[in-house]
Specification:
- The chain is mainly α.
- It has one domain.
- The chain contains four helices and no strands.
- The mean pLDDT is 82.
Length: 72
Amino acid sequence: MRHQGEELARYIEETDKISQPWLLIQLRLKKLQENRHNLSSDQYIAQMSELHQELMKLGEWWVGIEDDVFNP
């Protein structure tokens, strides 16, 4: 059984989207969710907080390129 994180990683590799940081954050989030059962609540919250901070640093990266980003 393939995990969603593995499927997303394969998509990123196959479409050469490794340079798109929002996809990398999405991948890290998916992996964190899949590994949730191995983490304490404090570890999970700390890692989720870190991902949130990184996402917020990206800002509104999509403005002006919505069609390119959101339409395959």
